[in-house]
Specification:
heterodimer, A: about 300 residues, alpha/beta, Rossmann fold, Alpha-Beta Plaits, six-stranded mixed beta sheet, four-stranded antiparallel beta sheet, 14 strands, B: about 240 residues, mainly alpha, membrane (chain B), ABC-2_transporter_component (chain B), transmembrane helix (chain B), transmembrane (chain B)
């Protein structure tokens, strides 16, 4: 359980995080979204006790961060931005060091090490200095370090940055497979990631909270949510489509010739549209309902802040 | 305590994983040999002691110890590992001690490896080995004082080069304030009390008697206080500047 109240961080005259308040419960996998410089990393640094807030309060598991940061840090796993690690150590030395600091001992330690190395697939590079590893492996070493002590709370700052699609998939699977009563906060600017992994999305920009709900709710905010997208095989008179009941607006994408029908409210357009096509005997080579475009919502929301 | 020991082991191993420790030890051994034989005239003096050897230590440490200490915090901040370290359940103070003792241990090792010199004087004559042991201890203690300054300067900046230069300058002041040149130039017009205070800040003044085998409580206390004060200053600097 994380509870943040009126969290503010100023660097000189610049306000990085501005009066942020939220709560996160066990079982929540929070996607922390925002443009670069929005205050995501700063917030995470305060949540993990690295930075001291200018004002406001952080309580984690009923303990105040400013009083018992060391207790909180024992229960917390953190992957800092860029996955820093000691370059002169090998992954196995590094993980042993972290395990010792985390007070893992004997069989339990060996078991956790084996498990984590298997989970993030580090076996082949265990004895190579970290500074010689590829970006993907470095990131995985950072992840291994964060989950080594099986923490209740996991804070990951851009865990998939710089990974190739296969590795991204692996990391997402790893996060999904963590047990259900854990609390995970992931920062990212990859929107599909939020839809794929998280059950809660928070968008912040200029240090302020813009949105906090499920990824589905975020999709619903898109003007493309439940819009019908179709493409005709031949040139067709489409003026009748816009007249269909429930259609608020129609657009034709110029380069592809794709027709988009936007619904009024959350009305379902598909039955009407397919009936119309059938009745007229129109040739359609693609027809589907859009899920809502997240990047569209994201751009819209964060652009408003700047103005 | 347990955490400090784990941090100490990591730091100590890291000195040997990067060639820092090897380079340091090698150069220390070479230079201390060259200085004691060619400039200190260890043979020609015809005395079975190691005074010429110990007399050059402050000047060797002046450049070598800052070079060793410069990466301690600068590197952590530059590579971002400081964020990792500070969010592990260890205190800044434990990290500071781990770093200090690890580097101090390498310095101690370098000193121990000068044992052939000790064997040489024992072979050539009958030195007072008590004096030599006391001088070794004094030298190690003084090295610790240099080291504490170096670590503090490393905590101030991300750049290792800047940390090195700052450390050399500050160490130089501490060495120089007791040397003849400085004291003579102040002698004419400065009240003796101030002059003594100035001299008493110097590593040289306190090391001088130790090199001769006299371990006085005030010299011991002086070096321990210097170490404590600079490590504490470094601790404050880390807490202050970790986020930059």
């Amino acid at each position: 359980m994380i509870s943040v109240k009126n969290l503010t961080k100023r660097f000189g005259g610049f306000t990085a995080v501005d009066n942020l308040s939220f709560e996160v419960k066990p079982g929540d996998i929070v996607g922390f979204l925002g443009p670069n410089g929005a205050g995501k990393s700063t917030t995470m640094k305060m949540l993990t006790g690295f930075l001291t807030p200018s004002s406001g309060e952080i309580r984690i598991a009923d303990q105040a961060m400013d009083q018992s940061s060391k207790h909180i840090q024992q229960r917390l796993g953190y992957l800092p931005e860029g996955a820093p690690a000691y370059g002169d150590m090998t992954p196995i030395q590094f993980l042993n060091f972290i395990a010792d600091i985390r007070k893992l001992k004997g069989r339990e330690k060996q078991q956790r090490l084996d498990e984590v190395i298997e989970q993030v697939a580090l076996t082949e590079v265990l004895n190579r200095p970290i500074e010689n590893l590829s970006k993907g492996f470095k990131r995985r070493v950072g992840l291994a370090q964060a989950i080594l002590h099986d923490p209740e709370i996991l804070v990951l700052d851009e865990p998939t940055d710089g990974l190739d699609p296969n590795q991204k998939h692996q990391v997402r699977e790893l996060i999904q497979n963590l047990s259900k009563d854990k609390l995970v906060i992931i920062s990212t600017h990859i929107l599909e990631e939020v839809a794929a992994v998280c059950n809660r999305a928070m968008i912040i920009a200029s240090g302020r909270m813009l949105f906090d709900a499920t990824p589905e709710a975020l999709q619903k905010k898109s003007r493309y949510y439940r819009a019908i997208s179709l493409h005709f095989t031949q040139m067709t008179d489409i003026s009748g489509l816009a007249e269909l009941p429930g259609v608020a607006d129609m657009e034709v994408e110029r380069h592809s010739g794709r027709v988009l029908l936007f619904p009024e409210g959350e009305q379902e357009l598909m039955p009407g549209v397919s009936a119309y096509i059938k009745n007229r005997g129109l040739q359609v080579d693609s027809l589907y309902e859009e899920q809502g475009r997240l990047d569209d919502v994201f751009r819209q929301m964060t652009a408003e802040v700047k103005v | 305590m347990a955490s400090t020991w784990i941090l100490f082991r990591r730091e100590f191993a890291s000195f040997f994983a990067t060639p820092v420790a090897y380079v340091f030890i090698l150069i220390f051994l070479m230079l201390s040999g060259v200085f004691s034989f060619f400039i200190g005239n260890l043979y020609e003096r015809g005395q079975a002691d190691l005074l010429p050897f110990f007399n050059f230590h402050p000047w060797l440490y002046l450049f070598l110890v800052p070079a060793m200490a410069m990466r301690s915090w600068s590197e952590e901040r530059k590579s971002g590992t400081i964020e990792l370290l500070m969010t592990l359940p260890v205190t800044t103070f434990q990290v500071m001690l781990g770093k200090f003792f690890a580097a101090w241990a390498v310095l101690g090792l370098a000193l121990l490896l000068t044992f052939p010199l000790w064997l040489t004087v024992n072979y050539l004559g009958n030195p007072d080995n008590g004096i030599i042991i006391a001088a070794y201890l004094g030298s190690w203690l003084m090295a610790g004082a240099f080291l504490a300054i170096g670590i503090c300067m490393s905590a101030l900046t991300k750049s290792q080069v800047v940390a090195f230069i700052l450390a050399v300058v500050v160490c130089f002041l501490f060495v120089l304030s007791g040397s003849g040149i400085v004291l003579d130039s102040f002698k004419g017009w400065m009240p003796p009390l101030l002059l003594d205070t100035l001299a008493s800040f110097s590593f040289l003044t306190h090391f001088e008697s130790m090199a001769k085998g006299v371990i006085a409580l005030n010299d011991l206390g002086y070096f321990l206080i210097v170490i404590g004060v600079w490590l504490y200053a470094g601790f404050l600097a880390v807490e202050q500047k970790k986020a930059e």
